[in-house]
Specification:
mainly alpha, two-stranded antiparallel sheet, 4 helices, elongated, disordered N terminus
Length: 125
Amino acid sequence: MEKTGGYIKRARDLEVYKRAYAVSLDVHGATLAFPKIEQYALADQLRRSSKGICANLAEGFAKQTHSKFEFARFISMALGSCSEVETWVSYAFDLGYITQAQRDEWLQCYANIHGMLVKLREKLK
C-alpha cells in the first residue's frame, strides 16, 4: 500500500476499493455471457453500477484534499451504486442469467462493501 506520512496516497489503496474492484471484474466477465438483448440493458446497467463504486471512490478521494465533505458526498454516491448493483443482481438471478450461488456470493460481497463504505463515511465526520 502506497502511503505518504501515514496516509493512504490513492483510492485504489483503500481496502473497500480493492474489494469493489475485484467483484466488479467478476460481474463484468459474467455479464458478457448474458443474452444479446440484455447487453445494452441489464448487463450494461450491472457493469456500470459495479464500476461506479470504484469510480466514485477515486474521484472523491482525489477531491478530499479540498473538502472532506466532498469525499463524503462521493462515498454516498458509491453507496447508491452499491444498492443499485444489488437490485440488478436480483434481476439477473430472477431472469435466469446467473446462478443462485453467484447471486448469493455477489450480494454478500456488496453487503460487505456497503458496510465498509458506511464506516468510511462516518470517519470523515
